[in-house]
C-alpha cells in the first residue's frame, strides 16, 4: 500500500496532484524542483521539505512521482539510483518504457485534466489513467488513484498517447480559438463576455451528444456567402484568415457526405 510520496516537480500538475494526495491522507515526504523558489512554494502548501539539488532527492517514499516536462524527465532519471524503488511518471505523451531501465518497479499515473496553480480542481471528477510494469504495480497505483478519483482507468501507453493527442485538440487548441475570438471582438470594442453563454452551451452539448452531431455553422453547410464575408472581414489578418479557411474546409469535408 502506498502511504508516502516524493514529488519530483513543482509545476501546475504537481501542485494540484500534491494537494489532492495530501487531502487523501498520503504523506508527501519531499518536493523537488530545479528552482528553489518553486520547490519551497509548493513545499509550504504541502507542509513538507524541499530541495533543488538532485543529489538530495529523498527516495525513501513508497512511491516517487515524476511530474516533469518530457525532456527534463529523461535527463533527471539518468542522475538517480532508482533500482528497487517504485516510480511513476505523469506524462501523457511518454511511453511507460522510458522508466524501464531505471527501476523494474515502474508505472504511469496520468491525471487527464488541464491544471493551473491558481485554480483548484475536484480530483474526484478527473480520470486518472494507470499503467504498470506488472499487475501488482498496476494494482498499487490504481488503489492510490482510487483515493483521489472515482474515475480510474487502466490503459496502455498507445491508448494514453491517443488521449493526450485528443486532449491537445479539445483543450489546448480550443482555448487558443477562445483567444483568437477574444482578439477579433476586442479589436471592435465588443465585450468577450457576450460569447461566454455560447461557449458554455457548446461545451454542454458535447456532454450529451456526439461532437459530429453537435456541429453547426456556415462551414458545415458550406455557406459560401457567409464564409466569403468572414474571409473579407479578415483581409487585414492573413494568419487568422488562413486558419479560418483551413478549419472551415476541415469541417465541410467531415460533413459533406451528409
Automatic annotation (TrEMBL):
For this protein, the record's InterPro entries field holds: 6-PGluconate_DH-like_C_sf, DUF2520, NAD(P)-bd_dom_sf, P5C_Rdtase_cat_N, TM1727-like_C_sf
Q: Which Pfam families match?
A: DUF2520, F420_oxidored
DUF2520 domain sequence ranges: 126-250
Question: SUPFAM superfamilies, from UniProt?
Answer: 6-phosphogluconate dehydrogenase C-terminal domain-like, NAD(P)-binding Rossmann-fold domains
> Which stretches make up the Pyrroline-5-carboxylate reductase catalytic N-terminal domain?
5-87
Q: What is this protein called?
A: Putative short-subunit dehydrogenase-like oxidoreductase (DUF2520 family)
The organism of origin for this protein? Mangrovibacterium diazotrophicum
Amino acid at each position: 500500500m502506498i502511504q508516502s510520496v516524493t514529488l519530483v516537480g513543482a509545476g501546475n500538475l504537481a501542485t494540484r496532484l500534491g494537494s489532492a494526495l495530501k487531502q487523501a491522507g498520503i504523506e508527501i515526504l519531499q518536493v523537488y524542483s530545479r528552482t528553489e523558489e518553486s520547490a519551497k512554494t509548493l513545499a509550504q502548501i504541502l507542509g513538507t521539505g524541499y530541495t533543488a539539488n538532485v543529489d538530495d532527492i529523498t527516495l525513501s517514499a513508497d512511491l516517487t512521482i515524476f511530474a516533469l516536462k518530457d525532456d527534463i524527465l529523461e535527463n533527471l532519471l539518468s542522475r538517480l539510483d532508482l533500482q528497487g524503488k517504485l516510480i511513476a511518471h505523469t506524462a501523457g505523451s511518454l511511453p511507460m518504457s522510458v522508466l524501464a531501465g531505471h527501476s523494474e518497479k515502474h508505472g504511469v499515473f496520468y491525471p487527464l485534466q488541464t491544471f493551473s496553480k491558481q485554480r483548484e480542481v475536484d480530483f474526484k471528477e478527473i480520470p486518472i489513467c494507470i499503467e504498470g510494469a506488472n499487475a501488482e504495480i498496476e494494482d498499487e497505483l490504481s488503489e492510490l488513484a482510487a483515493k483521489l478519483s472515482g474515475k480510474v482507468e487502466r490503459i496502455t501507453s498507445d491508448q494514453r498517447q491517443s488521449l493526450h493527442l485528443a486532449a491537445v485538440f479539445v483543450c489546448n487548441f480550443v482555448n487558443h480559438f477562445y483567444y483568437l475570438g477574444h482578439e477579433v471582438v476586442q479589436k471592435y470594442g465588443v465585450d468577450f463576455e457576450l460569447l461566454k453563454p455560447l461557449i458554455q452551451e457548446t461545451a454542454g452539448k458535447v456532454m450529451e451528444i456526439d461532437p459530429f452531431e453537435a456541429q453547426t455553422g456556415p462551414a458545415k453547410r458550406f455557406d459560401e456567402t457567409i464564409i466569403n464575408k468572414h474571409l473579407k472581414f479578415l483581409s487585414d489578418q492573413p494568419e487568422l484568415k488562413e486558419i479560418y479557411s483551413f478549419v472551415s474546409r476541415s469541417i465541410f469535408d467531415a460533413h459533406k457526405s451528409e
